[in-house]
Amino acid sequence: MMRLSPFMAVSQGAMPACALAIATILLAPNAAIAAPQAPALSSAHHVEASKLRYHNNGSYTAYFHVEYKRDHDGKRVQCRLAPPKTDLIPVGGNKTIDLSGTGWFVRNGSDSACLTEQGHIPLETEVWGRVRIFGGEGQSCRKSTKVIYTRAGGTMKYRSGGTTYNNNRCKVSSWP
Hints:
The protein is mainly β. It has 2 domains: about 1-35, no CATH class; about 45-175, Immunoglobulin-like (Sandwich), CATH 2.60.40. The chain contains 2 helices and 12 strands. The protein has helices spanning about 15-25, 110-115; strands at about 1-5, 10, 45-55, 60-70, 75-80, 95-100, 105-110, 125-135, 140, 145-150, 155-160, 170-175. The strands form 2 sheets. Strands 3, 4, 5, 6, 7, 8, 9, 10, 11 and 12 form a 10-stranded mixed beta sheet that branches. A two-stranded antiparallel sheet has the order 1-2. Strand 8 (about 125-135) and strand 9 (about 140) form a beta hairpin. The longest helix is centred in the N-terminal third of the chain and has 11 residues, at about 15-25. It is globular and about 40 Å long. Residues about 1-35 and about 40-45 have low confidence and may be disordered.
């Protein structure tokens, strides 16, 4: 019996296709490093976050907002919120938004439709960041893996680069 790793042993004969793929990845010394991958999740396909963080690697200044959808009075409302202190984020700058805060400036939707009576983003809501490039377009940071707002969640980190109109897509830099 040939041993490939502490977790996988292969018997004599043909190596299973999945083992071959894993062995190829593990043994390739000059393989390129891939972008951060979403963590292995349950069938719900989500991560939990209490903060969103954005890093501006672009050649522009930007704003960073929170977006989510919420059912209100029988309608689905698209909410876009700016944190209480909204600053332009310069080249190389960062912005972290604590989702548990209050004092939100509702840019899209209404206060009553988007916030709880206490002025909070509702817990257990799918949230995502949105980068608004000064002098350019907005870029959604929504990904196929959902980010659910919980008090005990980690920090979801995004970044963007490029120029005002080119190669400025919002990307995940790390998952909570």
